[in-house]
Amino acid sequence: MTADPTDRPLRFAPTVRLLHWAMAVMVIAQLLVGAVMVTTLDHYHLLRSVHVPLGAAILALVIVRIGNRLVRRAPAPPSTMRPAERRVATVSEYLLYALLVIQPLTGWAMLSAGGYPIILYQHLHLPTLIAPDPSVYALLRQAHTAFAYLLFFTFTAHMSAVLFHVLVLNDRLLDRMAPWRTRRKSSPTSSRPAPARIVDDIVAEQD
Prior knowledge:
mainly alpha; two-stranded antiparallel ribbon; Fumarate Reductase Cytochrome B subunit; 65% helix; 5 helices
């Protein structure tokens, strides 16, 4: 099915788009740091000092995202998406939200069960969630690893689906969340730098 060139879905608010892409970068960085941590002992403490506050930041931001999602409906998907595709997209979105909450919480609980301090920055610590317990620590460590793999596959599937819509179906699905509008035809602003186009779009949406 070919998309109508005029079929342009409504967009998420600029702040939501900014939060979305910031979290995407953070999640990719977190997965990479976590993978290096479990495959090598080199610089382990340095990596953990990055991993813990980054996980806390992701948890805080995803709570904001969920709150925003509950009070504001998402823009309508393009007409090229069949009902079954929309249901799959909705389920995958909810799964991503759930994993982005569960994964930091299991890491937090795991460190608590292991008796490790949860350091955000220097003397700024998070409270422990549970009492130290080696058996619980081992269980939570396995759960944290399993959820990390599930998050990786879900995140990859999400990106692959978006690329399929953009490169194959050409239905402009990405426009809903893109930092700036993609333009099929040349326009006076099409040659402007990306940051300038972002500002142009934000200003236009306020009018």
